[in-house]
């Protein structure tokens, strides 16, 4: 279907900046596998860079690391190796069926750099020991591969909301990323850096981080539709939604405690954009027959002129991992460049990518404008010129 | 259901600027009737100003004419009087059933100021005679009511695309508006001011005008969804749509020649926002059983990462006249204020309201930003300060 | 909109059989109010009998009581009188806005025959006392109105699933109906006659009864779509559904315990028709902004030839009470006639009307065929001829 | 994904009856390719017989030819060989990607039996010459393969409605089938046997035939939903539909003349089932981006009790060829058995499969009942017993 394409990736910084490490928490999951396989396919010119915002011309001068310069490794608690995971995703139609064979070398190379995650039940290590062990893996990866810098990305299964005082795994990994001097991206609704105890360390670290929870479907739509209603002075009365998911994430979110974390982000986009919380609920159902495909149905009741009741419905049918993977690559490139430029702390400019962003606006149009401004800021400074936060 | 509400309309300019005339072409149509009845309901505090963008706080300092200061009249070729049209609309649920009785005085007052439109079949008058007759009606309205200025709004039935060299009725009315010194708004897809022969007169007139074709449903959605696809670097392959309309407009658009004018605007929003014209058609069907309710179904096929094919569908169920009427009131207020401030020529700042705007961007978010900038510009100048274009 | 119509209701039995009593449990609810007001509108020829199956020609010879011969009364625990409830429903668009005024006499007459239901919190009466009190009200109604016979219909709020050993209110009313010699219809998912302790009394009573839970939307669709999949040998993998309801029923079903009763019926129609239980869940959300309107979205994943995955989605937007009320009138007429003809016990022939029918098939087409056969059986016997069960 | 399955095809007649020839008009099209490849996959136990009604137990005793006993050949005017067409369909996800390789021998065998169809532009042969040439190909196929009998199936591109007096290609093939003593199935909306001049020959031939236009999506749904509305006495006011099709058929139907033939069948199912023709149109759009996938959106406006306006919408997303191919195999088996049993003339019992059936009812439930009765009739007679029509 697709031929090798003449693709010229933005490469302006790769020579100077060297290669970039990408450390994936949940490295054998669907999103991670799609990101690794897809990056290889794009680097080899086997596919056009559809879905990669950082490959559009607005980012050409930002000095982002080139796709072929990304080096992958990570943690996972599951054992199925990446090449086999890629086969499974191809059988479901997430990856083109010929792709796993075409990028088998790159998948095997990443697989060789995956270390056991944790903690598994029965693991007796203390919090400090776990953090140190994870950080050691990250440091070892950076050193052994010789990458100039590393970005840690959480794409592990959604965690339940943790009990008070308990550090969930995602926060152990976030602490490890700080300790190992890595940039950090939380693509999941899990806690990660959002722990009061981590705030001070993060502030002192001089490292950039961003989150939470990639915005790939229902919330993406809500981030453009809710502003429309507000701008037109239409009064939204109820916004209801149902998500049908198969795949690993569907199973994780069938746990109401895990879904609660997800739904908080979904509600926020409405509250922020509408200035009020409309009636309506959000459901997340596991439907294994859908495989990696998700369907999101939204039903919006609104009042028009003279109180006339009207309805908008949307149905989004997408491939979850294919929606998420390019955002992961975008976030890695932008965070790596921020790290290179010495920008630290939470990066609200990346709110375009998240359901529950760090202190950003909630309208996609404004988030995109902020992202473009960030792209300009990332552009290489004049020689000899440095830049702080 | 609704009680009298404490509503404080923005009134900062009404004292100084006096009352404002609104001359509706198609004054007995559904949109016109809803605008007249709704304006009266809001002026009396019987309903909140839902759907009126100019009643949001961003416009509070713009010096817009207050709703109670609007005075309505117009042309129509049909004979059913406004109070009866309002009854019909209430029976269909477009207006609250108690509203026609509550505003019967205002409807009767407007009805008394409606003059016969044209040209009807067999009308022997020349182009110049028709224009002069229409202009005379407009002038007479302005003088007899004592309004400070008048805005002409075309809300007549959609015309077929005119044959080359022929002036359609909408352009006769537009020429008359120029001659009578009125601001002009074309809420329909008809030709209106878009005639080469009118361009010079319009430029010389020193009058503001805006168009074309109010954006109230499918195109409104497309103006927020198409930018989302572009910003996310998702490749839209096909965008198909079907509109089901009852009411007078449905009947007019069942004529393929009239629908052609409408569809041109709908296609433009995609081409401008996506930078390419995707596959797919747009249908407009007359379904009398829907009354004044319209349903618009859109089906978008797009490629994500690695060429994965995905689909978004939207279903919009709205009341046509209730969607259009507040926009008409907004446009009247903004154009009247522009006229007062001496702003002339096409007003691309009003692209937010139109399917096929005069030289504006096509993304709703950018159009809204331009509108807010315009709101600032309209704010009263310092004493003694004038402003040209 | 509607004029008086020349309607000739089937009246063949009303002379001979006399008038028929209808005792509504939940007599001031939306369904009950719509049934009473609608019956009066039809009897007066103000509306055509849309939605009334028993007014189609297939039932012309069945000897059903004529609509004008129905006499209404009932129990309710709420106090808002019927004429006021009708006004509220008209304001929501459930009833034509002119209808409450047109049938105010009939509403007032029914209102006068409503007795306090129960038990309310703090009611100290024993089970037997309550049953006897309810039965006394029913007997008093039959006697004072002089109707030939009475059918009791449960249209009260859905109850939670009762704790083991506890008699819920619906079963107290069902027992009272038996004691008062009335036919009985359970239009709700509540327990009613489905209590082991009631089975023997019911069997001995010689009275006909039918239930459970009127089939008015999602389940109605499922009862025609599921057989289609089976007949075409298509393998349904997942059937998911979300219901958005306002109104009183939406509030009752927001209680998960009440929703559980409802969902059991919805699942059964799939299991029976498909021979297997597909993946997928059913949600019932309360959305007050929808008033008495409900929206049901269904999403069906099925396998076709060679395992190709396909999807059907349905969206049903209906007015709950307008869907339910004609079925209530149908059921009353059919049950009254069964009572007249001496048919007793559960009536599986009425499975056409129920989500969770007594021992009937689950395919709507077969249920309709069974109903037509029942219509034939109900036709008047030759003079002097009796008929048992 | 799928393993070899223990499949026991119904084989009761294959020994006695010998092998059965299947002559496909349009043998290299999508439907034909899917039927040939799918039959091979099922015969080899590589897939379960999903979608094949004749593999359900209701047909076990009907004496149908076993799937492994079907021998394929046919006419086509296009040149792409079957194995290559199968590769293309696998790339689109119509066939499992591993299937073409697994059944390459069977595809090559069928390919070797495809003869040039016609008439192509410039073909100078007379009507009689063309018919005779096609019939000769069919006879040669039957003889050279040694099959006991042959069924001709039209799965060629939809033709435009022919001009008066002109014999379209489909009718030439139908005449050839009669002349060659074959059973005949018209799976397309083209004219085929529906030509007055062919009626007498068909009647005299003693051969069974069936048509027209396979019912695989929108019309299938309408055939279950329209009876539901009628049975519930709900008044359908408007039924609108839009079909989006890619593939070869989408291109053919983009020709309004060809679409007209298709739409006639779609309208008939409503008229027959509702007893009235509701408002609304049907569109067929070509959307190449959809490949072999079709989307059908239907929008039904209906009146309930007291004239309350309600709406049902359905969205059907299916794979066209995967929907059609099993029906083709069903029809071949049933027609072959009818031929064996000496049943001749049009077979209304097969109306279950067609949009525009020969003299059958239009409700799917009744059509299914008629099909089951036909299955019983086809069951082997007692030894020595014959059966006429
Ligand atoms: N796909 C999307 O559109 C999308 C959007 C937003 C967020 N997300 C989030 O991305 C995450 C990944 O989704 P997915 O579909 O790839 O899920 P997945 O189930 O396929 O993969 C998750 C992986 O995380 C691993 N894991 C679990 N616990 C771990 C631990 N403690 N340490 C290391 N690894 C661990 C699992 O073994 C698994 O391999 C989820 O949290 C999901 O909510 C996905
Ligand atoms: N309602 C919406 O959402 C919407 C959106 C965009 C544009 N519009 C446009 O607004 C216009 C009005 O729509 P409507 O629903 O009120 O239609 P309508 O049919 O109810 O009213 C149109 C009126 O125009 C009158 N008319 C026709 N020719 C005339 C002439 N030559 N001179 C004077 N009057 C004439 C008719 O008599 C009628 O009263 C249409 O062109 C429509 O396309 C409406
Ligand atoms: N509308 C539909 O389409 C539909 C379909 C199937 C079933 N039903 C069932 O019909 C029932 C009525 O629905 P509705 O919309 O009219 O609800 P509603 O809330 O408007 O009315 C219920 C009435 O029951 C009364 N009630 C509650 N407890 C009672 C008691 N113990 N004794 C006497 N009265 C009591 C309430 O006071 C209220 O007036 C519900 O159980 C619903 O599930 C409705
Ligand atoms: N797929 C479905 O769901 C469905 C349903 C109902 C009817 N149909 C009908 O089935 C037919 C085939 O559909 P398809 O998707 O396979 O189309 P297609 O375009 O893939 O195949 C049609 C084939 O017919 C051949 N052909 C055209 N003219 C011919 C002629 N004169 N003689 C011999 N061959 C000729 C073409 O070369 C092509 O190979 C169409 O008429 C379609 O309307 C399909
Ligand atoms: Na209404
Ligand atoms: Na096709």
Automatic annotation (TrEMBL), chains A, B, C, D:
Family annotation (InterPro entries): Myo-inos-1-P_Synthase, Myo-inos-1-P_Synthase_GAPDH, NAD(P)-bd_dom_sf
Name the UniProt record assigns to this protein: Inositol-3-phosphate synthase
Superkingdom in the source lineage: Bacteria
One Pfam entry name: NAD_binding_5
Organism of origin: Actinacidiphila acididurans
PANTHER family: MYO-INOSITOL-1 PHOSPHATE SYNTHASE
Membership in a protein family: Belongs to the myo-inositol 1-phosphate synthase family.
Domain Myo-inositol-1-phosphate synthase GAPDH-like: 217-321
